[in-house]
Amino acid sequence: MELTRRQIREKALQALYPFDFQQEITKEDAISYALEIGNHALFDEETGMFIPEYLDQLVSGVIEHQAEIDRKIEEHLKSWNIARVAKTDLIIMRIAVYEMLFEETPNRVALNEAIELAKMYCDHKSPKFVNGVLSNVMKQLDSEAN
């Protein structure tokens, strides 16, 4: 079964979430768990797990560049410390900032996808918060590119 980019971002969120709570989990275990959530068709007992390449890129990239991504997010938190940000909001923003910095995903697409994830997985205030922070990140990146 082929996953859309939006579904892959959703699975990346589910795979990255445990990393903020348990450092001993492996990337492979986190991805396997995320692929099993709500969609058993992605797991084939005989052939093993099919892991979409982009899902592996997102999870690996966010883990590898987390410090840089977090600094970029923290630059745009007004009167906030990154430790105070809800974990789900933070992971959604990490995925978007990773895509803005390291993938060929247009910044606007990364922003809009993050807002959609926030609508699905967070409280009613989160989409506005995520939009505000990521819009400022996007503006900074766009101005640096010009």
From TrEMBL:
GO biological process, one term: DNA-templated transcription termination
GO CC terms: cytosol
Pfam families tied to this protein: NusB (PF01029)
Superkingdom per UniProt: Bacteria
One GO molecular-function entry: RNA binding
UniProt keyword list: RNA-binding, Transcription, Transcription antitermination, Transcription regulation
PANTHER family from the UniProt entry: ANTITERMINATION NUSB DOMAIN-CONTAINING PROTEIN, N UTILIZATION SUBSTANCE PROTEIN B-RELATED
Family, per entry: Belongs to the NusB family.
Primary role: Involved in transcription antitermination. Required for transcription of ribosomal RNA (rRNA) genes. Binds specifically to the boxA antiterminator sequence of the ribosomal RNA (rrn) operons.
NCBIfam families xrefs: nusB (TIGR01951), PRK00202.1-1 (NF001223)
Protein name per UniProt: Transcription antitermination protein NusB
Organism name: Vagococcus zengguangii
Phylogenetic lineage: Bacteria, Bacillati, Bacillota, Bacilli, Lactobacillales
Gene: nusB
